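Example 9 (inverse folding). The structure is encoded as follows.
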């Protein structure tokens, strides 16, 4: 079974109102729909573009005011997913629930259903400036075109999350991201490659690009990519498609899910099968001083099981 994926590099530009945002969204989603994709991915917190038309300079309260657009955002995204018959991973959007603010990714289905995945690990900016809360649940979604999961930006840097969803049968991980500089972008990008290799699955990422006149969001460095395992049946460099860095564009590629099944059994390496589950359950001694200068009591205490 093959799935076609469109990943959108979304360029921030100044807008005057909600209609300016909706018009830009319409342009990129209509362009993506021309390629008849099964999945479309938008970047993390791309709705912060609305901050450029809001008269609120206080970071903490501005992002909570932005959460007031949640209902309009959901209806807008759902409209395109239904009209063009694809699964839309609508980036992420600051969302208030029970007085708490979450960085929440939304999945919109062709039937008009809406599902969510909160960001589980917060960056320093999210914790210190936006004062968001972390999510506490990890979702896996069954679709007609494969089993998928969503890990928002920083979450892909934690291998345990990707391994968990892989063990639950996930074939494609979607990674909406937002990074301000090259180092931040590469942390996410390199981890996407690692997760694809470790778990023998596809990873799709995208980023915001351009600039935005809002504190903490003025600069953006990004690139969309559709990443494969690194083995003979797949793309030579483990990249099915990628965009031009910091340009507004859409990258599209087909991925073959049957290749994953074959690779997980007969690949050059098969990390999902070769993983030493017996080893990971063991405790390990910690030696404080391997030069032999520690006292006998210190050595005995240090080598006790954790």
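The amino acid assigned to each position is listed next.
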């Amino acid at each position: 079974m093959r799935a076609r994926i469109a990943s959108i590099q979304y360029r921030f530009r100044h807008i005057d109102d909600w209609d300016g945002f909706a018009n830009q969204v319409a342009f990129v989603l209509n362009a993506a729909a021309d390629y008849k994709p099964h999945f479309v991915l938008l970047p993390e917190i791309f709705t912060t573009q609305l901050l450029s038309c809001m008269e609120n300079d206080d970071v903490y309260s501005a992002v909570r005011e932005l959460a007031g657009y949640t209902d309009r955002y959901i209806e807008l995204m759902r409209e395109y997913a239904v009209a063009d018959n694809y699964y839309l991973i609508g980036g992420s959007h600051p969302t208030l629930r029970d007085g708490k603010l979450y960085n929440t990714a939304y999945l919109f289905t062709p039937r008009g259903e809406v599902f969510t995945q909160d960001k589980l690990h917060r960056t320093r900016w999210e914790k210190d400036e936006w004062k968001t809360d972390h999510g506490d649940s990890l979702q896996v979604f069954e679709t007609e075109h494969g089993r998928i999961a969503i890990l928002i930006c920083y979450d892909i840097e934690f291998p345990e999350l990707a391994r968990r969803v892989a063990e639950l049968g996930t074939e494609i991980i979607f990674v909406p991201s937002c990074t301000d500089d090259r180092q931040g972008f590469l942390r996410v990008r390199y981890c996407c490659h690692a997760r694809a290799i470790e778990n023998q699955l596809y990873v799709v990422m995208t980023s915001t690009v351009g600039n935005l006149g809002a504190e903490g969001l003025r600069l953006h460095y990004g690139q969309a990519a559709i990443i494969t395992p690194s083995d003979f049946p797949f793309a030579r460099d483990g990249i099915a498609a990628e965009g031009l860095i910091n340009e507004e564009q859409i990258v599209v590629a087909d991925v073959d899910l049957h290749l994953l099944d074959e690779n997980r059994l007969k690949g050059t390496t098969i990390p999902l099968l070769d993983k030493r589950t017996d080893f990971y359950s063991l405790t390990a001694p910690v030696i404080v001083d391997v030069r032999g200068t520690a006292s006998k009591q210190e050595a005995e205490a240090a080598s006790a099981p954790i």
